[in-house]
Specification:
The structure is a homodimer of 251-residue chains.
Chain A (H helix, E strand, L loop, with lengths): L2 H10 L10 H8 L3 H14 L2 E3 L6 E3 L2 H10 L3 H17 L2 E8 L2 E8 L14 E3 L4 H8 L3 H7 L5 H15 L2 E4 L6 E10 L4 E10 L5 H22 L16
Chain A binds a DNA duplex (30 and 30 nucleotides) through helix 2 and helix 3.
Chain lengths: 251, 251
DNA sequence: ATTTAAGTTCCATAAAATGCAACTTTCCGC
DNA sequence: GCGGAAAGTTGCATTTTATGGAACTTAAAT
């Protein structure tokens, strides 16, 4: 095991409500001797992976990480195009939007565009959600073949339930979530893929459940659909299904 | 020298228009034997610091880096409060805003809020600027004692020129740049510090030179000043100077 | 099919990481 | 401002890991 794995483990400490760490916290969370934790943090600091906050002993990710996040967003034409579409939609409707990627059974937002409405869903980039519980995740799972999904969820309770849900997503061309992930929050999502790089992203708008009448919902689906269709055509995404908005509730 | 330094060097490759790397590119840029580059990329991949793009041999930063950037932004109450103020100002005036930190003689934007005006300055997070050439940087240098600034710039041409400029910034409570950094782009900036963590951030609005009449400029200074003053009071920043907007040009 | 570039694996050597214990600094209550 | 405890750092012998050259495999270009 290389020191890199320990360094990565330290970096993983920063997920989910832990914006800074100390030697002692690393000692506790990774089960390392404090001498090792101390030297590890120092080495990471000297390498620029960490920095101390002000003059304190608390460490946060190095400034370099801001550049890396930016590089990630520019690493793929798919993410860039999707960001443009979602940014425009977020601005038009005033609701918060995301561009997300799937990784295993989880989805992560890679770009966020906070809405302008007084009542809006606050951005939460980097937050990981179970793919099967979010509209975004379901659109991305729907882009996989059924047997791939079955393999991914092999041995889990969701395995059997997922196929019909994904079939519906494929038929509609979009997915919807109604307070599935967060109480009071609905979402609509559409996925599009780049056959050249074998990547897929999901374009998503989230909004307060109580605030959006059916016709606005349809308009949002239309806006995302139009943008996604443009991307699909430009990149040659043969699997893209032009969404058919419906007023009925799709669980 | 630890493998961490080489790993960090690989990560630094991603700055500035290089969103992905290969084994050969690392070999060339770091001057490593290709055996080492190959193993280094593999180790970083297995640790989650890198990931391959689609099925190719190109590597980009790992998804983890998105969380790290988010953790950075939440690592300090100063940055969080400053972000709220700048986000509100960016929304009110339609101009792009930044929250920036100084590191040595450079400043980096750590949060950006793109404006809504048709003619707006595009966000450029992670971009590093010389501190003495940007409004943002000058407000942060102005928060240092003169002898500290002198030490920081010891042996450079700027050393002598900086003191009177910073004295003026201290007197006004804000700094301004008129096309100093980017042609056609003006900026106003105000710094505020957290005495508890010894950090300082700069709140900044950037806008097209031709678009903003004096009274709007004064209103923007007022909005940033009000927000910054609130932060200064909440955190106990004794060094904060309430800005005195003036219509005259401050170079 | 042939050539060339790109990437990976092998192996002995050299260098770095580890864990313990001793030591120093910082923080907290009084 | 003092005493004690917690947090953090450093020295040292041992073990593990990284390194670079060369051979080898895979992928791409002609």
């Amino acid at each position: 095991m290389s020191i890199l794995d320990n360094a990565a483990a330290v970096l993983r400490c920063f997920g989910a409500g832990c914006p800074s760490v100390t030697v002692t916290e690393v000692t506790a969370r990774l089960g390392l001797p404090k001498a090792s934790a101390s030297r590890l943090l120092r080495a990471m600091r000297e390498a620029g992976m960490l920095e101390t906050i002000g003059g304190t002993k608390r460490h946060r990710p190095g400034r370099m990480m801001l550049d890396l996040a930016a590089a990630f967003r520019h690493s793929s034409r798919l993410i860039e195009r999707a960001s443009v579409v979602v940014a425009a939609a977020a601005r038009t409707f005033g609701h918060t939007g995301y561009v997300s990627l799937r990784e295993g059974r989880e989805v992560t937002a890679v770009a966020d565009f906070e809405g302008s409405n007084a009542l809006r869903v606050v951005s939460n980039i980097g937050r990981r959600l179970p793919a099967h519980l979010s509209a975004t995740g379901r659109t991305l799972l729907a882009r996989m073949a059924d047997h791939e999904v079955a393999m991914l969820y092999h041995g889990t309770r969701e395995a059997a339930l997922l196929a019909p849900i994904l079939a519906q997503v494929r038929a509609h061309g979009y997915a919807e979530s109604q307070q599935d992930t967060t109480p009071g929050v609905d979402a609509i999502a559409i996925a599009v893929a780049d056959p050249a790089s074998d990547e897929a992203v999901s374009l998503c708008l989230v909004y307060p459940h109580t605030l959006v009448p059916p016709q606005e919902r349809a308009a949002m689906i239309g806006a995302l659909a139009k943008g996604a269709a443009g991307i699909a055509e430009a990149l040659g995404d043969a699997g893209f299904v032009l969404p058919q908005p419906s007023i009925e509730v799709v669980s």
